[in-house]
Design a protein that fits this description.
This protein is α+β, with helices and mostly antiparallel strands. It has helices at residues 2-20, 45-54, 58-67, and strands at 40-43, 69-70, 86-92, 95-104, 107-115.
């Protein structure tokens, strides 16, 4: 009986703290967090160019969005919620990849995709700003 009460207490406390982390129905990105399950994923022209050049497909991007770890050193989380940039990293098909995304409401925009395992000679719009 004592084990049952301890289990019930643990369950109640778990539910309480889970509910306290975010009001019901509020998307993660509205609370300043990355929405890993957005209703819509869009891609900047730069991201599409980088994906094509580096042979990165939408499935790999989605996998990183859902399971990649946030590299806080490469992220910019000091901006307003919709302008925060998250650098997500992980391994896909044996390659270490990084994507930079912005999450706003139920939409996440992929800003760029980087293959950290290979240096690809891409020539995408906007690259000239970095020279």
């Amino acid at each position: 009986m004592k084990k049952l009460r301890i289990g019930a207490l643990f369950l109640i406390l778990s539910l309480f703290f889970a509910c306290q982390s975010r009001p019901a129905g509020q998307p993660a990105s509205d609370s300043g967090e990355l929405n890993r399950n957005p209703a819509k994923i869009s891609y900047s022209k730069h991201a599409r160019c980088r994906m094509e050049c580096r042979n990165i497909d939408e499935k790999e991007v989605a996998d990183l969005l859902h399971h990649g770890y946030i590299n806080y050193k490469k992220s910019n989380l000091k901006a307003d919620d919709c302008h925060k940039r998250y650098a997500l990293e992980g391994y896909e098909n044996g390659e270490k990849l990084r994507i930079i995304v912005a999450s706003c409401g139920n939409e996440t925009t992929v800003i760029t995709c980087i293959d950290l395992s290979h240096d690809w000679p891409c020539h995408c719009p906007g690259d000239e700003r970095h020279h």
